[in-house]
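In response to a reviewer's request, we include the raw inputs and outputs for one of the modeled complexes. The two entities were modeled together in a single run.
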Amino acid sequence: MRMESVLALALLSVGGTASAQTLDVPTDTFTLDNGLRVVVHEDHSAPVASVNIWYHVGSGRETEGRTGFAHLFEHMMFQGSANVGDDAHFKTIQGAGGTLNGSTNGDRTNYYETVPANYLETALWLEADRMGWLLPAMTQGKLDNQRDVVKNERRQNYENRPYGMTSIRISEMLYPADHPYHWPTIGSQQDLTAASMEDVQGFFRTWYAPNNASLVVAGDVQPAEVRRLAEKYFSAIPSGEPIPSPKARPVTLDADRRAVLEDRVTLPRVQLTWPTVEGWHADEAALDIMGSILGGGRTSRLYERLVYREQAAQSAFAFNSSRELAGSFGITITARPGTSLSQMERAAYEEIRRLAEEGPTPEEVAAARNGIESSFVFRLGSTAGKANQLNDYNTFRGAPDMFNQDLARFTAVTAADVQRVAQTYLAGKPKVVLSTVPNGQPELAAQPPEVQP
Amino acid sequence: MIRTFTRVAVGAALLASPLAAQELDRTIPPTPGPTPSVAMPDVQVRTLPNGLTLWVVESSELPTINAVLTFSAGSAQDGDLPGLAAMTAELLDDGAGSRDALQFARAVELLGIGLSAFASEERVSVSLSTLTRTADSAFALMGDLVMRPTFAPEELERERKSRLQSLRQQQDQASTVATLTFNELVYGSSHPYGRPSNGTPEAVGRISRDDIQKYFSTWIRPNNAVMVVVGDVTPDAAMALAQRTFGGWEKGPIPEAAKASPARPEARSATGVYLVDKPGAAQSEIRIGHVGVPRSSKDYYPLQVMNALLGGQFTSRINLNLREDKGYTYGARSGFSFDRGPGPFVASAGVFTAKTDSSLIEFMKELRDIRSSRPATEAEVSFARGSLVQSYPRMIETNSGVASRLAELAFFGLPPAELARYPEAIEAVTTADVARVAKEYLHPDHAVIVVVGDLATIRGGIEALHLGPVTVVPGEEAGTR
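The model returned the following structure tokens for the whole complex.
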């Protein structure tokens, strides 16, 4: 009985006849005179409101010698503004029982708070004050303090973390020196030391203008009221210079690049990274599903072979990451004692070749698609999750309610698509190969295979 | 069936109100409107004939269902085999019912559901998340996992091999080493809270299939469990689903230990400092604390308020001091683990190596001040209370949030109504209560201080603080006994 019910459903999904889930996220949108785009999504299921602002600036827009600045600047946005005291931003939101944070990546910086719905106006007052009047409250003391905090963030999440420096090294090798993804968002200790008050002022004036921002309000709110409040608090902020969206800049490699890192780790690890495509490229969904099939779970090809059957690896993952300007496909395998990284590297090429020659099974594609579909639906469970995703679509696609179009990209992927992207981007293509080995044991690094696959 | 629609509004100029912008006095924060009323989750309680208790909350906003099945067990019942509960939980889905490990994993992945089992110190929890349309198949798999695991010998050997390597890898992570070392020093290696839940190499090396089978048949029983179901399902339908899935599951004699509180270890006569060397480390991981209190403490709510202002929030004293004032760390915090027995109180941070001694000074100052020279003020207590009470709507916003909170209440033997009581229980906490619990439950002069970092750089500075006798714990022993 049990098995039959699972199989029946499986057949439906594999055949593509299961009714796709509809993702219902209605929105109101408007734009203020100063260029600030506003999106409102009503969800009265709980008395909370999420306020979410994206500025279309990330570490990719930084200049030489100032890496890490977009993120350091994000920290400065929590240090008070003309009408908001030094710790008042945190205290106002936490005192209201709300939660707040911000984050920076290569492409954008976001700020968000979820508060009881009666504090919506308070949250908008805070966001408007730092968008419009940050600089009068900036001091050298605040900058020095947050510089120290961010340096500790780097120590905690990169320098003192096992394998923590690998992502930085891979990006340096994958992207040319002038590419926005060449340097890490966290920056270098040296550049963080060099950041000055003039940098804070210049960065704010250039990038933190309403015409470079998108505001989403989601939750137990009324669109007309949000509109009134957005006008009230944001309309006096002057527009900045027009800021064109950056153009996609995918990269290619003409030959393999190999490197070895020594770290305080017990088990050696090899990471293979290929250039792929930017976000919303026609091949992104198939590449994501290929990641799932090669290394996304327990029945993925690399995990099943290397961890489960051969028991040679401690872990094996693969995933595609398509960002605003470029993308990459990465495989990470951590070897157990008695296994060489060279063996792991060869096994990865064998599995890629098999996928490129034979394609995946319909069942593999269906499982990946179903997992993605579930994650789309579960993401709608919180106003904060919806608000952030609406802003992702609004910032990078110019329209907020792209949930169904986004999901449709994944449900349309076929086995032939996956086979094609395996051939196009992975099989026999140049890549970055990084070995991370225990300190003092460089001989454990993966050696280049004699015959390239 | 359901449409997505967008109403695009243009011509913002028509609606703009320049007058309002000019007159707006931004120095005055907006006054919040009246506190919105919160719909308390309506929890329906049912019981199956075999003793399985069911708590159901219907919430049909999304076509999804979350279920959490909680057993009173966990690593507290490991006995002299640390890692036994963890390995048992890990093996539950490595073959169950008619499926072997890979077939089971494929069935889960093909459905696109989340289904996993996890052992913590006092609980084994099985969590399921599914779309409504796959609920029948999802619960059937959950039933196989908890009632009919295979425990195939080759799967046990796979799990053993993998776990032995992760225990070695655990030593790479300074934060993990710090926590394990702290727990062992506070409770001793024979206490349930002092042993590592993940296991020790020695015990993991010898845990047998019989040990696992025995743990499973003793503890994983319907009359030792509560299942919380939240989502797109009526209480009647959930009951029918539970009856269909778990109705044939046999109850068993549950040892008294399931409900027992682990003993309180003797308090230390003085503070001791324990160092673990990580040569070249960019940061030092600090843990300061001692035995705390059980969940059943009458002071549970006053302690929530006290810790919120001491180190439980970004705006707490500890974080504002060590991060926002001094810049020693990316974040510093404190917290109580409220367990069946007295779980630990711990203040913690990763700090810049060169500021390790300075950080210890500030931590100790905050822990001492709040109980003597600088007790919590009326304003701080009022702030913390307001913060906790008003966070309530957010706490119960998502189905998974409601499910995990209810599962916790059920585990502690508290009624579902305790969830709704939270705001009033916090409101009732006074400034005097906070001062009293700070004195009664914080013991900076009877504490264990663990620092994991580059001893060549930090040891001299720490010794000069004279916080207590300094002991160096050999790295290879830290948290592995």
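As requested, we also summarize the result in words. The longest helix of chain B spans residues 153-170. DSSP finds 19 helices and 13 strands in chain B.
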